[in-house]
């Protein structure tokens, strides 16, 4: 298994012979307005796609955890061939099909793709009224013969749904969306440093890959912040924090 962080939550995953693309945000830097009701007005994405991004590589399937613009944007809808298999959470399939995609599969609980078993889990994209406003989000656990299991938690804070995935399936690798994204008021809507520490302590058997940092204007936890926090907590050996464009070979994890 090889995993490339492209930018934000956009991942390229080579798994069980399949080329998978997750949560594609492919727009040019600064092409979208700032997230509203946040503490700065920087335009999104904050950074360009990395030079290591290979736009000519076509995925066998795209997995979309939810439809927020930093996970599925207009640039992605234009760049990805419309006959590509799209796997998503239930409720999102209509909007994806209306964008012209003809092979859309909503995953209620489980699905399979070319020998890969996929199981969906819920998440909490924030707390209270803000969490309700942010809507349904999902994470996906992938397993295949001869491959490490990988859980992509999606846009969620530390919550019972994440605990359920970890406790029930003990994934070898867990990808968390860090950044501590938040609005002017309210709690974070993605994992902050303390949430990632909770994942590490709750599931010491899993290798954590932290992404979703330094790319969107309301994500205030940076890679540098996270590294400093993990070192202070003695957890730095459990967490990989890739740069944009970086490949991780996780076959032996």
How would you describe the overall organization of this protein?
This protein has 253 residues and is an alpha/beta fold. It has one domain: Ribonuclease Z/Hydroxyacylglutathione hydrolase-like (Metallo-beta-lactamase, Chain A), CATH 3.60.15. The protein is built from six helices and 14 strands.
Summarize it.
This protein is of the alpha/beta class. The chain is built from 6 helices and 14 strands.
Main traits of this protein?
253 residues, alpha/beta, Metallo-beta-lactamase, Chain A, 20% helix, globular
CATH architecture: 4-Layer Sandwich
For the CA atoms, what is the radius of gyration?
17 Å
Residue-averaged pLDDT, rounded? Answer: 97
Q: Write down the overall geometry.
A: globular
Order of helices and strands: EEEEHEHEEEHEEHEHEHEE
Low-confidence stretches: none
Strand content is: 25-35%
Measured as a percent range, the helix fraction is 10-25%
Report the major sheet. 7 strands, mixed
CATH superfamily assignment? Ribonuclease Z/Hydroxyacylglutathione hydrolase-like
Q: Which CATH top level class fits?
A: Alpha Beta
Q: CATH fold name, please?
A: Metallo-beta-lactamase, Chain A
Q: Number of helical runs?
A: 6
- Widest beta sheet: strand line-up: 6-5-4-3-2-1-14
DSSP strand tally: 14
| Amino- and carboxy-terminal Cα gap | 9 Å
Tally of structural domains: 1
* Main structural class: alpha/beta
